[in-house]
Design a protein that fits this description.
The protein has 472 residues and is of the alpha/beta class. It folds into 2 domains: 158 residues, Aconitase, domain 3; 174 residues, Aconitase, domain 3, CATH 3.30.499.10. Helices cover 31% and strands 18% of the residues. It has 15 helices and 19 strands. The strands form 5 sheets. It has a 5-stranded parallel β-sheet. A 5-stranded parallel β-sheet has the order 17-16-15-18-19, covered by helices on one side. It has a 4-stranded parallel β-sheet with strand order 11-10-9-12. Strand 9, helix 6 and strand 10 form a beta-alpha-beta unit. Helix 6 runs parallel beside helix 8 and helix 12 crosses helix 14. It starts with 6 loop residues before the first helix and ends in an 11-residue tail after the last helix. The model has no long low-confidence stretch (mean pLDDT 96).
Length: 472
């Protein structure tokens, strides 16, 4: 009998081409999906070396990082050098016959949003992209991780990659979620409790009743921030919800191949006796809506909580880190989060810009106006998400509330993708993105991470707001 295996083990072992020793392997890569930054750089290297693309049918590219997300956009972008990346990727993908989702393509969107949405990434696959949040795709049962430009070039040329196998970790979310608590709150709470380095050297499988009850959008959000937990990747075993999600997707299997695919997908679960190197159990009854107060996703507390006092830190390193974060963010210890005034709200990114995210935010915004002086921006995660939201009237709810309704793209997740209209130094921004690092959304910008519902509630009041206190 074969040894009980984790989900990560099953996918990893089925993709080994060669065991190179010392826990290092040559793996086959099923899907290579690149954006205009990493993709254009790697293709330039391929061309200079006179190499060809090994498997064009497994290779995709998209424009998402440096695009201007204003309506009526073109190649022109205020991002320094951005237009060169856009045109370079377009020229080189055309020359190599690679499928590109260009700016005006009706299937365009953020890479981590459209790969599942189109059925390009499928359960049991290995998947890479030149972006750290590639782990998002683990939400549909894919072994996915981000790679650098040199590795991207290697995958272009060989459809393989040399990797060291990570340890196995499992995070179990038990119980049921409270009112107005979502996937974003779950992952922020986990990181706050275990630490931003809690998953280092591991691949983490998210499991438990609360995970099983999440729709696919929520599972993608959980896995999106696995990298903020310092894991190599995050993954959730596919189930019937996953299978139904892929039914009829443009690039998903059809006919007999579909039947064979779902037969295989149903085997992609960790065996009951499988051993994990590390395990964490989270009781969902303890999770309230979360908001970050500092400069790391681990700097997260319940929305009805206070800024912690560094004097209470567990060690000198933690105290110094907290002191620097509080200095940067411009807040004082013991300040209630709900007393923090906000200058801007951003709903978007590969973390929280899918249709269910927009629906939940619209539920809060419907019939209301954002607070005076607040700048509020929404950038859907894909053209398809944007079209479907507009067919439901969600765009009108956002616009009537006072939001800017943008095109799809990475947008204001980072200062380089802000379309030339980033936030100003010293501003406090409530954001549905994944990183609240120093200068992430612009030099001196103070970012607070939260769910779309908390972001919508905050836009209405002008200060960080507990969404449970906003009647719907």
């Amino acid at each position: 009998m074969s040894k009980p295996a984790t989900l990560v083990d099953k996918i990893w072992d089925s993709h080994i081409i060669a065991d190179l020793g010392d826990n290092t392997y040559l793996l086959h890569i099923d899907r290579n999906f690149q954006h205009e930054l990493a993709g254009s750089t790697a293709l330039t290297g391929i061309d200079k070396a006179g190499r060809q693309i090994r498997n064009k049918e497994l290779t995709f590219a998209v424009m998402d990082h440096v695009l201007n997300t204003h309506p009526g956009r073109s190649d022109e972008t205020p991002v320094p050098g951005g237009i060169n990346f856009i045109r370079e990727l377009r020229q080189r993908t055309r020359a190599h016959g690679i499928r590109l989702f260009d700016i005006d393509d009706p299937l365009q969107g953020i890479s981590h949003v459209i790969a599942p949405e189109l059925g390009i990434a499928l359960p049991g696959c290995t998947y890479v992209c030149g972006d750290s949040h590639t782990c998002t795709i683990g939400g549909i049962g894919v072994l996915a991780w981000g790679i650098g430009s040199t590795d991207v070039e290697h995958v272009f040329a060989t459809q393989t990659l040399i990797q060291t196998k990570p340890k196995n970790m499992r995070v179990i979310f038990k119980g049921e979620l409270r009112q107005e608590v979502f996937a974003k709150d779950m992952i922020l709470y986990l990181i706050s409790q275990v630490g931003a380095a809690g998953g280092i050297d591991h691949a983490v499988e998210f499991a438990g009743p609360a995970i099983n009850n999440l729709h696919i959008d929520g599972r993608l959000t959980i896995c999106n921030m696995a990298v903020e937990f310092s894991t190599r990747t995050g993954i959730i075993g596919p189930d019937e919800t996953t299978i139904e999600y892929f039914r009829g997707r443009p690039f998903a299997p059809k006919g007999e191949i579909w039947d064979k695919a779902i037969e295989y997908w149903r085997t992609l679960q960790s065996d009951p006796e499988a051993q994990f190197d590390k395990e964490v159990v989270i009781d969902c009854a303890d999770i309230k809506p979360q908001v970050t107060w500092g400069t790391s996703p681990e700097h997260s507390v319940a929305v009805d909580g206070c800024i912690p006092d560094p004097a209470n830190a567990i060690d000198i390193h933690s105290r110094l880190t907290m002191e620097r974060a509080i200095s940067y963010i411009g807040l004082k210890p013991d300040t209630p989060l709900e007393d923090v005034k906000i200058d801007a709200v951003f709903i978007g990114s590969c973390t929280n810009a899918r249709l269910s995210d927009l629906r939940e935010a619209a539920r809060i915004l419907n019939g209301r106006k954002i607070a005076p002086g607040i700048r509020a921006v929404c950038s859907p995660g894909s053209y398809d998400t944007k079209r479907r939201a507009e067919s439901e009237g969600i765009d009108k709810i956002f616009i009537e509330a006072g939001f800017e309704w943008r095109e799809s793209g990475c947008s204001m997740c980072m200062s380089g993708g802000a379309g030339g209209e980033g936030f100003s130094p010293g501003q406090h921004v409530l954001s549905t993105t994944n990183r609240n690092f120093e200068d992430r959304q612009g030099r001196g910008v103070r970012s607070h991470l939260a769910s779309p519902v908390t972001a919508a509630a905050t836009a209405i009041t002008g200060h960080i707001t507990d969404p449970r206190k906003i009647g719907v």
